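Chapter summary example.
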Amino acid sequence: MRIIFAGTPTFAEIQLEALLTTGHEIVAVYTQPDKPAGRGQQLQMSPVKTLALSHQLPIEQPTSLKTPEALATLTSYQPDVMVVAAYGLLLPEAVLALPRFGCINVHASLLPRWRGASPIQQAILAGDKETGITLMRMDKGLDTGNSLANGIIPIAHDDTSESLHDKLAVLGAKMLFHALEEVVDSPGEQQNEAQVTHAPKIAKSAALIDWQQSAQQIERQVRAYFPWPVAYTLIHGQILRIFKAQVVKRDVNRFPAGTIIEQTPQGIIVSTAEQALLITHAQLPGKKALPMSEILKGHAALFTLSKQMGI
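The structure predicted for these 311 residues follows.
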């Protein structure tokens, strides 16, 4: 088959690597334009572009696929199918209809659960026990197309968005390698609209901890928002970014939520609306992320007992 691949970040790079081993012809790779990054704001290529260059594949980086020129370029590649994974551009209906077998998306959830941009984070926040990959035939809606294949993995109690992302990327690549030929001309199965949940794009503000929540929910927030945007709170007006935490049983009824109630060799224990949270790894402004025990050595006065988090 003649395949156009469209994707941008590391997740997509791993899917492209799998396609390169299938024996099909990758006739073009579409990825987001190079963007300024880092302190020097140097233009940086996407992981997908870097991989495509190493295999001398034709690369297209349009800012939109809605123009006549973009459609003409796509048409010139005469694709049998377009495989899409975390591309970042909307595909208009004219593009969806262009390949002989349409467009297939590699989506990091078990659709119709978690349609949208943040399925991995939302699965952790919701306390889901499992998640997976859906190969989906794309239509004009957002992740609404027919399901072609599903792969399922458990969510471990200590999975972060980073670790779960890596597991799902490998699963998606395996599914593309083994199942693409089988499903490419399949009509698939309609999604059950009664089971739809949504995974909206994450704003940095979503990572602000509300100590009125349970310790379990805050611990999920810490895992869901690692490595970005990282859960945070305020302590004496300073931002404290929290990288690792765990739920601990404590009698918290005597304390307002957000109160530091203990210091331990592992870190500090903070009361919540239900049980308590042990913060073990964190970061103060302008400092490195460190074990909380190391932070306490230089900043013990910030974390005295009875001090209130969130202010």
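To summarize the output: The mean pLDDT is 97.
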